[in-house]
Amino acid sequence: MKLIRFRQDGMVKTGVIEGEKYLDTSSFGEDYNERFFETEGLVRLQAFVNENRAVLPVVPADVSLDCPFGRPSKIICIGLNYADHAKETNAAIPKEPIVFFKSTTAIVGPNDDVMIPKNSEKTDWEVELAVVIGKKASYVEEADALSYVAGYCLHNDISERAFQLERGGQWVKGKSCDTFAPLGPFMATRDEIENVDALRLWLSVNGKMMQDGTTANLIFNIPYLVSYLSHFMTLLPGDVISTGTPAGVGLGFNPQIYLKPGDVMELGIDGLGTSRQLVKAWQ
Question: I want to staple 181 with a disulfide (CB 3.0 to 4.6 A). Which of 12, 43, 106, 200 is the partner?
Fold first, then answer.
């Protein structure tokens, strides 16, 4: 299944994508949130769609999309998880995953505007594969880790590099500004993605390709990350793990390139759709 949430009549509603159709599943009566995932929501939703497909309202394809799931308890990000990205930023290849958090208040829809924060001069882009946890995970074995994954989605891990690297403390300050986590357009359930270790991911700015990589080059793959993180914290249903970005970020250019008002980012991942964000100044 491909899960969406969309805005209509002043509300955020749930839906699914089937072929070219967007179907409204509001009558299912549940948001796609922690409670949904922890109570076999994906199984129940599929049964509901199978039984009611013929009568579910069709949503216009140009509907305004929200994040495809309700606000998670946490967004956990992995830094420097592609060797080419580590190299371009003059960083050593990590021996263990570099872990940081991104505030959930940064979440916006896939095509919403991205706002350059107040006093920012170094706002940057990062296309990433996001993993959505499907059930409570604690001390998970790597061999079993994928069974804890509900699905995957596209994420633009927007980053303010001065806040992140020049202001002391942890990276979270440069990762958590409002609008810094566009997610979607949809969440694809695990069975929708044939080989998550071989997905092309790309990002362009104003039509110029900046990032063009593959998840085959992840230093730490998804089963390893789920297992690893579960040894340091309990992963709750609906939690997001953002798995890192390939080379081509603004920080890595010489001279460096950063976003400015009016810029347009477009990005995508095989099987997970595309998104587009217009950059605006803080106001």
Answer: 106
